[in-house]
């Protein structure tokens, strides 16, 4: 959902295309590299705690994006959003794999991935509808909440 809203939010705040591209690139860069650390953490720490703190960090960052106009702040927020996503993304799969009974593990992971990926598509559509009906800030606040 953020992939579509972030460039529009930054554009509405007067950022250049280079700045928008840089902020938009920081998020997946931190997310991808962060998983090299958070993936193994999910094997050592409580998965529920990692999921909680990762989701909370993502929500707080998204809400904070509504209240800043400074480019350096957006770079920091994008990095924090990536860190939150890195905490959550590999941990969800690890949790499903760990808690599913061995004979059902592949089936459970497949069901999880189906609904997760369907959620991306449905979430993107709903976010677009929210943004069209109530504005960009409302859509971002809904995602953050």
Largest sheet: none
- Unreliable residue runs: none
Helix proportion = over 70%
Quickly give the structural class. Answer: mainly alpha
Q: Count of DSSP helices? A: 6
Mean pLDDT: 92
Radius of gyration in whole Å, from Cα?
Answer: 16 Å
- The sequence of SSEs as H and E is HHHHHH
How far apart are the termini? Answer: 13 Å
| Number of DSSP-assigned strands | 0
Strand content: under 5%
The geometry reads as globular
Transmembrane segments: 20-38, 50-67, 73-97, 118-143
Pfam families: MFS_1
Membrane topology: Multi-pass membrane protein
Subcellular location: Cell membrane
Observed structural traits:
MFS_trans_sf, globular, single chain, MFS, mainly alpha, membrane, MFS_Transporters, 145 residues
